Amino acid sequence: MPVIELEITSIDDSRFVELVASFVSHYAKLYSPGMVRVIHVDNWFGERWLGFAGKILGAAGVRNRNINDATLPSPPFRPSRIKTALTHYRATDGRYIKAESTLSGLHAEKSGAQFWHLFRPGLYCWYSGNTLSNTTGSLMIYEVTRDGSSGWYVLFDRKMDWQVTRTTNVSREECTRIAERSRGAESTEPADARESPS
């Protein structure tokens, strides 16, 4: 059973949501953050969202060029794109307890030049919805600590089953191992730490 369980909505492929829960649970176990926030976006989003802060008065987009940095901006998804935002807090026994579901304040309307950075330590995860119709899915995770932040992105394609097809700032081999374990496949090599970006 995953450490973090996610709700399956009418626009989701249940297998994809279970896969996302496996990834979120893996990193929650690995890093033991005090908070895990999982945000369900209405549709697919590309890797350009990784480190993206938004636009200033219609100009070119502003991006954090160093994904492993002191702070990362909250990706500026429109509030209407956010289906749910589930927050889980780690209890003293290590289990994660789900708080009441609310829309994420991270994605409230902002002025054109206002960027919100993630300062509160925790694991922030965004995953794509509409996977019943789409044959692609996406997952983006930011780890925020008091010492700094890092983020990574995983793209999935559905063929016979959901498969990792592209990764940014995390090794594809590691993500494939996590996906295989979520299918109950035997892992030949433990993924006990996130590999350094190449």
List the keywords.
single chain; 198 residues; alpha+beta; seven-stranded mixed beta sheet; two-stranded antiparallel ribbon; globular
Mean pLDDT: 83
Please indicate the count of domains. 1
Total strands: the figure is: 11
Order of helices and strands: HEEEEEEEEEEEH
Assess the beta-strand content as a share of residues. Answer: 25-35%
Runs in which pLDDT lies below 50 for 5 or more consecutive residues are 185-194
**Radius of gyration from the alpha-carbon trace, in angstroms:** 16 Å
What structural class do the secondary elements suggest?
A: alpha+beta
First and last CA, distance: 32 Å
Shape: globular
Biggest sheet record: 7 strands, mixed
Tally of helical runs: 2
Helix content: 10-25%
Arrangement of strands in the largest sheet: 6-5-1-8-9-10-11
Question: What do you see in this structure?
Answer:
This protein has a seven-stranded mixed sheet with strand order 6-5-1-8-9-10-11, covered by helices on one side. Helices cover 15% and strands 33% of the residues. It has one domain (14-182). It has two helices and eleven strands, in the order αβββββββββββα. Helix 1 crosses helix 2 (172-182). Residues 185-194 have low confidence and may be disordered. It is globular, with a radius of gyration of 16 Å. The longest helix has 18 residues, at 14-31. A hairpin with a 3-residue loop joins strand 10 (148-158) and strand 11 (162-168). The protein has 198 residues and is an alpha+beta fold.
